[in-house]
What does this fold into?
Amino acid sequence: MTTVDLPLLPLGRGTDPLSERGVECPGDLPAASDPDLVARARAAKEALGDRVFVLGHHYQRDEVIQFADVTGDSFKLARDAAARPEAEFIVFCGVHFMAESADILTGPHQRVVLPDLAAGCSMADMARIAQVEKAWEALAEAGVRDQVVPVTYMNSSAAIKAFCGRNGGVVCTSSNAEVALEWAFAQKGPDTKVLFLPDQHLGRNTAVLDLGYSLDDCVVWNPHKPGGGLTAEELRDAKVILWKGHCSVHGRFSPDVIDDLRAKIPDLNVIVHPECRHEVVLKADHVGSTEHIIKTIEAAPAGSSWAIGTELNLVQRLANAHPDKNIVFLDRNVCYCSTMNRIDLPHLVWAMESLVEGVVVNQIEVDPQTEQEALVALQRMLDLPGKSHRD
Ligand code: 13P
Ligand code: SF4
It folds into this structure.
């Protein structure tokens, strides 16, 4: 089996329908220097009233978050989008896979808008449907496929979610990966294996730290190598087959920075997102989704010290909201998610003013077949019992 490496597109230029990267803005954006941007956003939102519902992921810029009707992690936003059937327009301030999920979970009368189509996700791009279908074939050739349940992180294309839906699998988020994996392992008896897409770190951290599997139970499927780079025997012995994907933002955090900070700051608490590498999570005191990180900091006593390993917009917002706590960022360098940051005030103003004029721009529409199959996997996630201990 050979795989073809697709060329990388500079963000926002050209079209790559197979990727999360999207296309350049098809309209005239207001200038970023326009002093009236805030007033224009406010006026457009007021004019739209209940017809519009603005969702904001925690990694969005402050200038955008101020206009969100609700904020949340991917799990909360998926539920919030589904719970607003009266809103004609869902403006999703997040990234492409989140807007796709919102389109799948909302009614046919509702239209989902992503203010900048270049707001993709490099992790979601690391699992293309053709690669996953090839892997599925290879698992059959290795004689293990009948035991495998696919689980995909929310951070994946609708096509991958549909793949999980039609193959008895489920979607998970960083809030519920533990219960999703427990559900998956209960599907095919004691010999069940899980194919976890596309974030190897969330899959490994959850399987090992929450479910008690060993690192040796996990193998990594490399889509750029024939047979994933694994032998049939390795596949037969594995319990968890981790897709070789990662988040370029959370992949930056490293254990030596934790050691340095602990040496400098007395009684430091370290909290990280489960997209961080296993060796980082092992050194942290707490691990959880963005929603969990926020709740933990809110509940922390005044005077406590925290190093936070997640995207910088959220860490800065938490530091500003809690001046009574000592909050530091867990990386030596600036660490924004560049695609989340694509959604800025000019794009939001442009999207909402267009809606006021009756023009729906940047609509995210999943085709009906994909939608139907992806909904099966998303609904399985929404029906999972309870939530993880992290929430
Ligand atoms: P959560 O919203 O699930 O915490 O995920 C973080 C993330 O990287 C979203 O892209
Ligand atoms: Fe993707 Fe990571 Fe950015 Fe989230 S933070 S959108 S996983 S690149």
About this structure: Confidence is low (pLDDT under 50) at residues 1-18. DSSP finds 16 helices and 13 strands in the chain. The domain at 37-122+339-366 is CATH 3.40.50.10800 (Rossmann fold).
